[in-house]
């Protein structure tokens, strides 16, 4: 039986005997940190075969270094670098920290699902089933816009769950919404401006800026983006980025009349509409609102993501493109230079999870859980502060807490910090203008784990009550 071992690159010096040369090479590898304390060495038989020397040469070198304290020989267990040895300062390979990034004691930051809710068993089963059933061709990295399986699964899912009018050949898999927005930006004319809702996240504006597209803010009100304002933009934008199902962060839904108005405006100006449907699956007190894309599939790019439904770390997003844009996207230099950035196993797992109904079941389960959390958040806050106004709670994973007029937002955040509560501030005039000059904070009720939710809401309420503000 052939005995297999680890690979070890050793350069034997010239002008010395094989055994002495091997000893020098091993000492150098240990000093330099290439061989770390506790590292297991190849068996004498394997290393002799790799170096083309006699096995006795390796046995002799190992024994000598063991005598000197460099190595420890364990009968029937192998030879390892002596754990007590430390490489020369500055020469050892750095070790990455394995601890998770520090998180606040009470994490109420918006935009995050409950991490502990990730369907581990269902995802693992979907991955195993998809790989076992797939042919060897899945390892052939030739699909720039994603494997056929997730594109077929998403086309069917988006059609029945979000009302998107699309087909598999119009779907592109991308690295989250930010990655998809970067691809869309590459399709626009160079330096063309893009209109965005005034509250659009800074990182999304940065994506557009990095691709050379200046952004033009569009005000929002209770009916969502104010489409009339588009006519005041000079020059007219080449595209408009909107969140029609659940405007971030205020939570407004784009008024039906404005939906049609936006489509008519885009047609007049030969512009694209980019629909960010970041959490459209989570709605509580209203009927499902279909995708804006269905009003004009030839001019609207629908963008979705698994960041809220499954986990942001998966970095799985998708675009439903108008006919003709898919071929253009596949021909872009940025796409030609690399294959789809989402690992093939994750693509296949997502497709399997959608096809076997696991994705729908998970969303329904989480929708009910987040609904209960929303209700508890509002009830607990109103119990402590009866006059507090909580906005944007019809859908999504966050709520906007309207602070009293003239309240110091920094003082509110400081009070939350003192209670070890992490929330988000609204650093934009758009929201304060929308709610009559009132400052506000954003609370993400989807973020805490199940066992930590109660304590997080208690800490938040204590922080706000302790401010002794006049909430009327």
Q: In words, what does this structure look like?
A:
There is one protein chain. 38% of the residues lie in helices and 13% in strands. With 472 residues, the chain is α/β, with parallel strands linked by helices. It has 15 helices and 17 strands. The relative contact order is 0.13. Helix 5 (148-162) crosses helix 11, helix 12 packs parallel to helix 15 and helix 13 crosses helix 15. Strands 4-12-11-10-9-5-6 form a seven-stranded mixed beta sheet.
Strand order of the largest sheet: 4-12-11-10-9-5-6
Largest pleated sheet:
7 strands, mixed
Number of helices: 15
Q: Report Rg.
A: 29 Å
**Share of helix among residues?**
25-40%
Which properties best describe this structure?
4-stranded antiparallel β-sheet, about 475 residues, single chain, about 40% helix, alpha/beta, 17 strands, 7-stranded mixed β-sheet, globular
């Amino acid at each position: 039986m052939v005995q297999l071992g680890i690979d070890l690159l050793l350069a034997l010096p010239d002008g010395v005997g094989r055994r002495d040369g091997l000893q020098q090479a091993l000492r150098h590898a240990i000093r330099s940190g290439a061989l770390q304390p506790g590292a297991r060495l190849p068996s004498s038989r394997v290393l002799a075969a790799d170096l083309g020397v006699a096995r006795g040469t390796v046995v002799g070198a190992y024994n000598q270094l063991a005598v000197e304290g460099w190595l420890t020989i364990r009968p029937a267990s192998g030879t390892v670098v002596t754990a007590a040895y430390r490489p020369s300062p500055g020469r050892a390979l750095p070790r990455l920290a394995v601890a998770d990034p520090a998180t606040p004691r009470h994490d109420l930051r918006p935009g995050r699902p409950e991490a502990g809710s990730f369907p581990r068993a269902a995802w693992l089963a979907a991955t195993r089933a998809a790989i076992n059933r797939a042919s060897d061709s899945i390892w052939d990295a030739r699909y720039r816009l994603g494997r056929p399986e997730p594109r077929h699964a998403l086309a069917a899912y988006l059609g029945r769950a979000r009302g998107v009018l699309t087909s598999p050949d119009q779907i592109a898999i991308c690295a989250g919404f930010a990655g998809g927005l970067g691809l869309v930006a590459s399709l626009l004319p160079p330096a063309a401006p893009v209109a965005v809702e005034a509250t659009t996240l800074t990182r999304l504006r940065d994506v557009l800026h990095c691709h050379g597209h200046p952004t033009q803010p569009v005000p929002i009100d209770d009916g969502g983006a104010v489409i009339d304002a588009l006519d005041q933009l000079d020059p007219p934008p080449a595209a408009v980025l909107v969140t029609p199902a659940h405007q971030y962060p205020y939570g407004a839904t784009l008024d039906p009349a404005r939906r049609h108005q936006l489509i008519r405006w885009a047609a007049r100006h030969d512009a694209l509409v980019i629909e960010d449907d970041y959490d459209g699956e989570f709605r509580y007190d209203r009927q499902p609102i279909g995708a804006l894309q269905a009003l004009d599939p030839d001019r609207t790019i629908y963008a979705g993501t698994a960041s809220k439904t499954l986990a942001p770390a998966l970095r799985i997003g998708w675009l439903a493109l108008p006919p003709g844009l898919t071929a253009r996207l596949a021909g872009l230099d940025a796409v030609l230079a690399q294959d789809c950035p989402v690992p093939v196993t994750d693509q296949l797992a997502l497709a399997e999870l959608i096809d076997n109904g696991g994705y729908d079941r998970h969303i329904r389960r989480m929708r009910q859980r987040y609904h209960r959390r929303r209700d508890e958040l509002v009830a607990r806050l109103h119990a402590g502060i009866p006059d507090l106004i909580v906005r944007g709670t019809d859908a999504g994973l966050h709520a906007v807490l309207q602070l009293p007029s003239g309240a110091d937002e920094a003082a509110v955040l400081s009070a939350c910090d003192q209670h070890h509560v992490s929330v988000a501030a609204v650093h934009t005039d758009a929201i304060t203008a929308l709610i009559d000059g009132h400052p506000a904070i954003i609370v993400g009720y989807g973020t805490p784990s199940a066992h930590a939710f109660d304590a997080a809401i208690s800490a938040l309420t204590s922080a706000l009550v302790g401010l002794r503000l006049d909430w009327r």
